[in-house]
Amino acid sequence: MAEGSDDIQALIALMARLPGLGPRSARRVVLHLIRKRSGQMTQLARLLESVATSSRECLTCGNITDRDTCAICADPARANGEICVVEDVADLWALERGHAFRGRYHILGGTLSALDEIGPEDLGIPALIDRIRRDNIREVILALNATVEGQTTAHYILDALPDSNVTVTGLAQGVPIGGELDYLDDGTISAALRARRRF
Amino acid sequence: MAEGSDDIQALIALMARLPGLGPRSARRVVLHLIRKRSGQMTQLARLLESVATSSRECLTCGNITDRDTCAICADPARANGEICVVEDVADLWALERGHAFRGRYHILGGTLSALDEIGPEDLGIPALIDRIRRDNIREVILALNATVEGQTTAHYILDALPDSNVTVTGLAQGVPIGGELDYLDDGTISAALRARRRF
């Protein structure tokens, strides 16, 4: 037993399964924590316990929250008639960090996949259509990933939306801010050229 | 508040301070854990709490353990007259993974440093000399890092050891297993050439 105690070994094994960590970095993290066992480690244990107990999905949009309704769905200022459809909570977090969107979200929790037997109900698409009808939504922004799966799902939603005066939009495709043309893939360059705009 | 709740944000901030993690990877890890909140996350919280409570330093060698005396110091088979001096618990773990050393350890917990006011007492060097006298040690292996600080500390220990029939050795320096000469630094190549051996 190289690493001190059974619990330490179990902790390293568990840490090594986290995304982006492996056995080497897990050992480093655990040793760092053991050195700070009375402060950082105890605090981390308590926060993990607390978040594990209190976290749940917002009943309206699927966002991670500690209440029935997340802070975004509960904020009356965000009932501006816009709803942004994302694949994942991580995408919602990314959009919120951008501070550009002031409406509400709908989290699909994945993309349509015949192979994995993920259908429209698994993604809450009927619930989305209900929300659009009920909440007087004017614009639906399909902020799905620019992958085949994301775009297939976007087209499915587009077809499934009721005929009404809801505008459906997607994120612009083009050169990322700070991006150098030389390093961009051909598809992005072509898309940016086709969608060129006047100065 | 982009990330769900105050606790989630605090958890991400705490995770981002772990070695090798930053804000982006901390968010990824926390989201992964929230998805597995009833299993992996609760288990991680409990193990962290348990390791934080039970971990302490072995009174003899400084290894991390959950008892007064670590498994290595308690194992009579390892009283073979050899003691291996390392800077850090991570170095002990690395040596144990190599399965080549069957004696006991002494962890310094750092290197001598005038700048940081770390003297021989802070590294337990007097205690090491006591152990060498008391435990009939035949060989002291100074497995310190091949850095200036590590080598300075090694020379200090060498001078401080009592005149006796204790053999003092250091790790061999040379080409790492699987190493390509082309990618090695000049110092290592020169050291390997000077320490060349007959086939």
UniProtKB/TrEMBL annotation, chains A, B:
It holds the Pfam family Toprim_4. It comes from Paracoccus marinaquae. This is Recombination protein RecR. It comes from the Bacteria. Keywords: DNA damage, DNA recombination, DNA repair, Metal-binding, Zinc, Zinc-finger. May play a role in DNA repair. It seems to be involved in an RecBC-independent recombinational process of DNA repair. It may act with RecF and RecO. Residues 81-176 form the Toprim domain. A zinc finger (C4-type) spans 58-73. CDD domains: TOPRIM_recR. Belongs to the RecR family.
